[in-house]
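A reminder from the course coordinator: this example appears on the midterm review sheet, so study it carefully.

Given structure:
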């Protein structure tokens, strides 16, 4: 079962090490912040695994310089394979009882590891604790764990559908690998890894598999992680990645359902709804992006082609209109099923007005 436990009941002595994994790619401008915050932690019994994923700048050299200064740091260099492959590389080499992950452009609070290790040690039956985060674009919510209405099926359906906003709005990124402390034995025993063929939603798929094998997952109100928004990052720039990834995301989640939740209608319906979430991404970063120089007709043809892709079409055909659906959502569903050019043009205009 999942719980909403959140407060520490006094300090605990911790004897077993923590592994911290940072995937590194062309991050020479950010390593000082992320690594510096880790080396300044009040909790000292950890190994820091830096995985240089074929960086072309000085990132690899900087990692080696840090390793010379602190014997807790292990540096690995590998050919470029993407974020997921770098995280997996680190997970396969961790030796700690627990593991935490950090992106190179983010950083942890100075007492984050102490709070995290004490928290999970205080609950021997808890395999993952999700912590609140700081975001530069949002005011932190006071005691966010008290505002979480949660059970395992709810969070699974949120991850499958891409609808995690209710958690994000109060400071919990349930779909991300960072701002969590995880029991390493669960990851080792069940070989929980990130799907390396995905370049979007890979964290959410990882979390689906992780939570599947956890006895309990808890929320904690401590804001231990600083999430930095980089507008030049992969997630924010003009790209057709969401267009290419949508069928693959749906297929990867289908495999998860076939393995763990076959014939579960609620889970299957949640996966169908991922079409809405990832078309939003594709529209924002590609189809309706101001940097897209294609004509309206050309954009429409590409949009229609994605809707007619076999996997996407299958999921669209299964989506059922709900009583509380907005007019825009109903219109989108009608467009997805019968993508005429006039409907597409109207939808595009409506999106620009929002």
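Designed residues:
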């Amino acid at each position: 079962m999942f719980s909403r436990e959140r407060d520490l009941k006094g300090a605990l002595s911790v004897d077993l090490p923590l592994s911290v994994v940072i995937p590194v790619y062309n991050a020479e401008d950010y390593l000082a912040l992320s690594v510096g915050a880790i080396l300044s932690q009040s909790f000292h019994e950890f190994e820091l695994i830096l995985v240089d994923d074929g960086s072309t700048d000085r990132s690899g050299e900087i990692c080696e310089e840090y390793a010379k200064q602190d014997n807790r740091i292990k540096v690995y260099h590998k050919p470029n394979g993407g974020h997921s492959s770098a995280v997996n590389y680190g997970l396969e080499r961790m030796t700690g009882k627990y593991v935490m992950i950090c992106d190179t452009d983010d950083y942890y609070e100075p007492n984050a590891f102490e709070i995290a290790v004490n928290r999970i040690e205080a609950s021997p039956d808890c395999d993952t604790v999700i912590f609140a985060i700081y975001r530069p674009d949002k005011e932190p919510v006071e005691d966010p764990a008290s505002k979480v209405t949660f059970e395992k099926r709810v969070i699974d359906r949120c991850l499958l559908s891409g609808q995690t906003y209710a958690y994000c709005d109060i400071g919990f990124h349930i779909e991300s690998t960072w701002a969590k402390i995880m029991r390493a034995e669960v990851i080792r025993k069940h070989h929980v890894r990130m799907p390396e063929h995905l370049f979007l939603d890979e964290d959410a798929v990882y979390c689906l598999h992780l939570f599947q094998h956890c006895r309990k997952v808890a929320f904690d109100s401590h804001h231990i992680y600083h999430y930095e928004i980089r507008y030049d990052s992969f997630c924010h720039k003009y790209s057709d990645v969401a267009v290419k990834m949508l069928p693959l995301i749906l297929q990867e989640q289908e495999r998860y359902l076939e393995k763990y939740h076959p014939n579960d209608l609620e889970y299957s319906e949640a996966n169908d709804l991922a079409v809405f979430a990832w078309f939003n991404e594709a529209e924002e970063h590609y189809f309706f992006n101001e940097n897209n120089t294609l004509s309206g007709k050309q954009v429409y043809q590409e949009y229609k082609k994605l809707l007619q892709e076999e996997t996407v079409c299958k999921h669209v055909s299964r989506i059922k209109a709900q009583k509380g659906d907005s007019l825009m959502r109903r219109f989108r569903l009608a467009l997805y099923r019968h993508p005429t050019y006039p409907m597409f043009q109207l939808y595009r205009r409506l999106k620009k007005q929002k």
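Confidence is low (pLDDT under 50) at residues 1-16. DSSP finds 15 helices and eight strands in the chain.
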